[in-house]
Write a structure and sequence with these properties.
Rossmann fold; alpha/beta; elongated; 873 residues; 6% strand; 6-stranded parallel β-sheet; 7-stranded parallel β-sheet
Length: 873
C-alpha cells in the first residue's frame, strides 16, 4: 500500500518560505518532512531548489537527480536540474536536462527560454533563436523570452530584428527601464539619435537611480552636441554611483570638446584611479596630452593603455606621437605592431610609409603606400604621400599623377594644393596658372595651409601673404611644440640664458652640410670665425655624405654633430647641454630642416640665415639676417623676426672659386657661333608663364638671339618648346645645357653667354652670384618679397644698380637694348669685371666679421635680458 505524502498545506508552508529567499529555513523544514516521507520526489526537488539558492550546486544536482530517479517523468525536476548544471558550467548536460523536461512537457515555455540561454552561451545562435521563439509561441506575453530574443539579435548585430523584439516587450511592459535603455543603445548605434534620446529619457524617468541609463543619455547628448546637458547626465550618473569610471571618462571627453582641458584631464585621471586597468581612459588621456603638446606624457598614457589591451588604433596613435618627437625608429616599431594586430589597417600602412621615407627606405615606403591603397582605393593620403616622395626624388610627372588623384578625392589636405602646383612648375605646365594663383591666395586668406612657405615664394610676390601663410604653416605643423598652457610639462621647459662664456658658442644647424648651394656659400665662414671670441658647432640633420664639402665643413668647425637619427628632444637636449648661445637656422622651411627643434628652443637666441629667404612666421625665431635691399624698412612688419641688417649684401660667398681654364668656344657647348645668347640657369620651378612671355618678347625683338637654359626633365623641355611656338618663336632658338659634374666647368661655360636674364618673383640667388663672379651681367626685376630682391642685392654688391628693373616693360626693353648693338652692354661688362675684383660681395673675411659683430650685439642684448629689436649695422 502506497505511503501517504505530505499535505498540500505542508508543501505550501515550505515553498512560501523558499519563495522569499529564506533558503536555509526552507531546507530545514523540507528535511524534517523528508524524514517523515522518505523517497518523496517532490521534497527532493524542493531540497534541490534550497541548495541551489544557497549556492551549493553539487548538493542541488544530487537532490534533483534523486527526484528524477523516484519519478522519471517529473519534468520540473529535469528543468531544475538543467538550471543547476547551467550554473555549474556543464552546458551540454544542462541542454540534455532541459530537453528531457521538454520531451515530457513540450509546452513548457520556461524550459524553451532557458535552453535558449544555454544555446546562446554555446554559440548555437540558430538553436537559441528557435528556442526563444518557441517559448513566445507558447506564451505570447512571455516578457523574458521576448527580451532574450531581442538581446541575441542585438549581439548578432541584427538591429532591425532586435528593435522589433524589444518593442514587443514594451507593448507588454511599457515601464521596463532596462529595455528602454537597451533599445536606446541600439538606436544610437544606427544613428537614430533622437529616438535613442527618448528611450534613455524614459529609462531614467522610470528608474531615477539608473546610472547606466544616465551615462548612455549623456553620450547621446554629446553626439547631438547638447554638451551642457551631457555633462549634467554624466554628473547624475556619478552622483548615483560615485565609482562609475565610464561616466568619468565620458565627461572627460565632453570637457575636451569644450576646450576645458584641465577638467578633462581631472576626469580621465579619476576614471583611472577607480580602475587602473581602464584602457580607454588611458588612451583618451594620451590623446589629450598629445593635443596639448605633452608628447612624452602622451607616450606614457598610450603605453599603459596598450599594456592593458593591445589595440591597433592605439599603437598607431603612439607611433604618430613618436613621429612628432622625431623618434622615427620607435614609430616604425609601433606601426608594425599595429599591423601585426590588424594587417588591413590602411592608416597604419600609410603612416608607416611616411616613417620609412624619413629614413630613406624609399622602396619600402612605396610598398606601404600602395598597400594602403590596395585596402582602400579611394584613400587620398597615400596618393599625397606618394606624390611627396616622387617630388623629393625629382620624378615630377609621377608626383603630379599622385597629387591629382589625391586632390580629386580630398582637396583639403594641408599643402596638397601647393605641392601639386610645385610639380606643375617643375614640369612647366602652366594651364590655368592665373586661376591657380587666385585660388591659392583665397585659401591663404581663409587661414588654410595650402602650400609650404618655400613653394609659395616661387609663385607669389607678396610679403604680407607670405607672412600669413608662414603663420598658418607654423600653426598646422608645429603647434604641438610650443604650447604655453603647460610649459612645465611640455616636451622641454623654456630655455634659460646661459652664464656668460669666455667664447660665444655659435651652433649652425642644417640638413645641407654637403655639396649644396648653402654649404658652398657658407663653408668659408665657419673656417674664418675668430676663435678667440667664438666657438663653432655644426649640427647636421642631413646624410653623412663624406663628399668633399662635407669633409671640409667637418674640418672647418670646432665640433660637428651628426644628429640626423636623433629625436627632436635629444637634439635640443644635446644643444642645451653644450650651452649653445646662438643657434643659426640655415634651413628654415626647406627639406629636412626640422623646424621642430627650434620650436622647442635649442638655444636662448635663434636666428634664420641664408638657406630660407623669407619669414618663418614663428615667435620662436628671434632674428632674420638680411640687408636693406632684401628687407626694406617699410617691409619689416611682414616678418615675425626682428631684422639684423648687414651693411652690404646679406649673402655670404666664397672669396675665391675655381674656374676651369679650358678654352671653350660656343660650338663646344652646342651653341651657335654667332647671335646673341641670353641665358638663365635657374631651376625650372622658378620659371613661370609671365617670365617666359617676357623672354619670348625679348627673343622676338632680337634677331638671331637664343635662350640658353639648363637641361631638365623631358616633359618640361618639350613644354617650353611648345610655349615658344605659341609666341611665334621657333623651338630651335631654345638651347639646353647638360649638367656638368664640376662646378668649375660650369662657371667656365657661363662665360659663353652674353646676358643672364633673371626669373621673377623668385630671383637667381647662387646662380646670380656665380654669373656675376665670372663677368656675366645679370638683368633682374625687383619685387616685393625677400626672394624677389636677392638678385638686386647682389647687383648692388658689385655696383650695378643699372641692371635692376622695376617693371616687366622696363625688364624687356633693357634686355632688348643691351642685345641690339649698343655699347651699353660692353660698358656694363667692363664695369662688372673691374668691380668684382674690389667688391665686398666675394670677401668672406669681411662678411664673417660683420656676422660676428651682429652675433656679439645680439648676445649682449640677450645677456642683459633686454628686448630684442632690429639691428642696424
Amino acid at each position: 500500500m502506497r505511503k501517504v505524502g505530505p499535505s498540500q498545506e505542508q508543501i505550501d508552508s515550505v515553498t512560501s518560505i523558499l519563495s522569499i529567499g529564506k533558503f536555509q529555513e526552507a531546507l530545514d523544514k523540507t528535511e524534517i518532512l523528508r524524514q517523515q516521507y522518505p523517497g518523496e520526489s517532490l521534497l527532493s526537488n524542493i531540497s534541490g531548489a534550497c541548495y541551489q539558492g544557497l549556492g551549493q550546486l553539487e548538493n542541488a544536482v544530487e537532490n534533483y537527480e534523486k527526484a528524477i530517479i523516484t519519478n522519471p517523468s517529473y519534468y520540473k525536476a529535469h528543468y531544475n536540474l538543467g538550471g543547476a548544471l547551467q550554473e555549474l558550467g556543464k552546458l551540454n548536460e544542462s541542454v540534455e536536462s532541459f530537453e528531457r523536461a521538454l520531451s515530457i512537457k513540450p509546452d513548457y515555455a520556461e524550459a524553451h527560454n532557458n535552453i535558449g540561454n544555454v544555446f546562446k552561451v554555446l554559440g548555437q545562435f540558430d538553436n537559441a533563436i528557435k528556442s526563444f521563439r518557441s517559448a513566445i509561441e507558447i506564451k505570447p506575453d512571455y516578457l523574458e523570452a521576448h527580451f532574450n530574443l531581442g538581446s541575441i539579435f542585438q549581439d548578432l548585430n541584427n538591429m532591425e530584428a532586435a528593435i522589433t523584439s524589444y518593442e514587443e516587450v514594451l507593448i507588454i511592459k511599457p515601464d521596463f527601464a532596462v529595455l528602454h535603455n537597451n533599445l536606446g543603445v541600439i538606436l544610437q548605434g544606427i544613428g537614430e539619435l533622437d529616438s535613442a534620446l527618448e528611450h534613455f529619457e524614459d529609462a531614467v524617468k522610470i528608474m531615477p537611480d539608473f546610472s547606466e541609463a544616465y551615462n548612455n543619455l549623456g553620450n547621446v547628448c554629446k553626439e547631438l552636441n547638447q554638451l551642457d546637458k551631457a555633462i549634467n547626465c554624466f554628473n547624475k550618473a556619478i552622483a548615483i554611483n560615485p565609482n562609475f569610471d565610464k561616466a568619468y571618462n565620458n565627461i572627460g571627453n565632453v570637457f575636451k570638446e569644450l576646450g576645458q582641458f584641465d577638467n578633462a584631464i581631472k576626469n580621465y585621471e579619476k576614471a583611472i584611479s577607480i580602475d587602473p586597468n581602464f584602457a580607454e581612459a588611458h588612451n583618451n588621456l594620451g590623446s589629450l596630452l598629445k593635443l596639448l603638446g605633452r608628447q612624452y606624457d602622451a607616450v606614457v598614457s598610450y603605453q599603459k593603455s596598450l599594456e592593458i589591451k593591445p589595440d591597433a588604433v592605439v599603437h598607431n596613435k603612439l607611433a604618430m606621437t613618436f613621429m612628432l618627437l622625431g623618434e622615427t625608429n620607435q614609430a616604425i616599431k609601433s606601426y608594425q605592431k599595429a599591423l601585426s594586430i590588424n594587417p588591413d589597417y590602411g592608416d597604419a600602412h600609410n603612416n608607416l610609409g611616411i616613417a620609412l621615407n624619413l629614413i630613406d627606405q624609399t622602396e619600402e615606403a612605396i610598398k606601404s603606400y600602395k598597400k594602403a591603397l590596395s585596402i582602400k582605393s579611394d584613400y587620398a593620403e597615400p596618393y599625397f604621400n606618394l606624390g611627396n616622395l616622387m617630388l623629393f626624388h625629382g620624378q615630377w610627372d609621377k608626383a603630379l599623377f599622385n597629387y591629382e588623384h589625391a586632390l580629386n578625392l580630398k582637396p583639403g589636405i594641408n599643402l596638397l594644393f601647393g605641392n601639386l602646383l610645385n610639380a606643375k612648375m617643375q614640369l612647366c605646365i602652366w594651364d590655368d596658372f592665373s586661376n591657380d594663383l587666385s585660388e591659392l591666395i583665397t585659401k591663404i586668406n581663409n587661414n588654410e595651409s595650402p602650400i609650404d612657405p618655400f613653394t609659395l615664394s616661387l609663385l607669389i610676390d607678396d610679403a604680407q601673404i607670405q607672412l600669413k601663410n608662414s603663420k598658418a604653416h607654423v600653426k598646422s605643423t608645429l603647434s604641438n611644440y610650443f604650447k604655453e598652457k603647460y610649459p612645465k610639462n611640455n616636451s622641454l621647459s623654456k630655455i634659460d640664458r646661459e652664464q656668460k662664456h669666455k667664447k660665444i658658442r655659435i651652433g649652425y644647424f642644417s640638413a645641407d652640410f654637403r655639396e649644396h648651394p648653402v654649404s658652398d656659400l657658407s663653408a668659408e665662414i665657419y673656417e674664418l670665425h675668430d676663435r678667440s671670441q667664438f666657438e663653432i658647432y655644426a649640427f647636421s640633420f642631413g646624410p653623412d655624405t663624406l663628399d668633399e664639402m662635407n669633409l671640409r665643413i667637418k674640418e672647418g668647425v670646432d665640433n660637428f654633430y651628426d644628429v640626423r637619427m636623433m629625436s627632436h628632444k635629444d637634439v635640443v637636449m644635446l644643444s642645451r647641454s653644450l650651452e649653445i648661445d646662438i643657434a643659426i637656422n640655415l634651413g628654415g622651411f626647406t627639406a629636412n630642416s626640422r623646424a621642430e627643434v627650434f620650436a622647442m628652443s635649442v638655444a636662448p637666441v635663434q636666428i634664420g640665415y641664408l638657406g630660407f629667404t623669407g619669414t618663418m612666421g614663428a615667435d620662436f625665431m628671434d632674428y632674420i639676417i638680411a640687408d636693406r635691399i632684401v628687407i626694406p624698412k617699410d617691409k619689416q612688419i611682414y616678418y615675425s623676426e626682428k631684422v639684423a641688417y648687414l651693411p652690404n649684401c646679406y649673402m655670404a660667398n666664397r672669396t675665391k672659386i675655381a674656374v676651369s681654364k679650358k678654352i671653350l668656344r660656343r660650338k663646344d657647348a652646342g651653341l651657335p657661333s654667332d647671335g646673341f645668347v641670353f641665358c638663365c640657369f635657374n631651376n625650372y620651378c622658378k620659371v613661370n608663364p609671365i617670365v617666359f612671355r617676357s623672354w619670348m618678347t625679348i627673343l622676338s625683338k632680337v634677331n638671331g638671339s637664343i635662350l640658353w637654359l639648363p637641361e631638365g626633365n623631358n616633359i618640361a623641355m618639350n613644354n617650353l618648346k611648345k610655349e615658344a611656338e605659341k609666341y611665334g618663336i621657333d623651338e630651335d632658338r631654345l638651347f639646353f645645357a647638360p649638367r656638368l659634374n664640376l662646378k668649375e666647368d660650369h662657371l667656365n661655360r657661363l662665360q659663353l653667354a652674353d646676358l643672364f636674364i633673371d626669373t621673377f618673383p623668385f630671383n637667381a640667388h647662387t646662380t646670380c652670384s656665380d654669373a656675376l663672379r665670372v663677368g656675366l651681367p645679370v638683368l633682374t626685376l625687383i619685387g616685393d618679397s625677400f626672394t624677389s630682391r636677392v638678385a638686386s642685392s647682389l647687383l648692388n654688391g658689385v655696383d650695378l644698380p643699372e641692371m635692376i628693373t622695376s617693371s616687366k616693360e622696363h625688364y624687356e626693353s633693357l634686355a632688348i637694348e643691351l642685345a641690339t648693338g649698343s655699347e651699353k652692354l660692353k660698358v656694363i661688362k667692363d664695369k662688372l669685371k673691374n668691380n668684382v675684383l674690389t667688391s665686398s660681395l666675394y670677401d668672406a673675411q669681411l662678411i664673417t666679421k660683420q656676422l660676428e659683430a651682429t652675433y656679439l650685439d645680439i648676445y649682449n642684448t640677450s645677456q642683459k635680458e633686454l628686448d630684442f629689436d632690429h639691428i642696424n649695422f
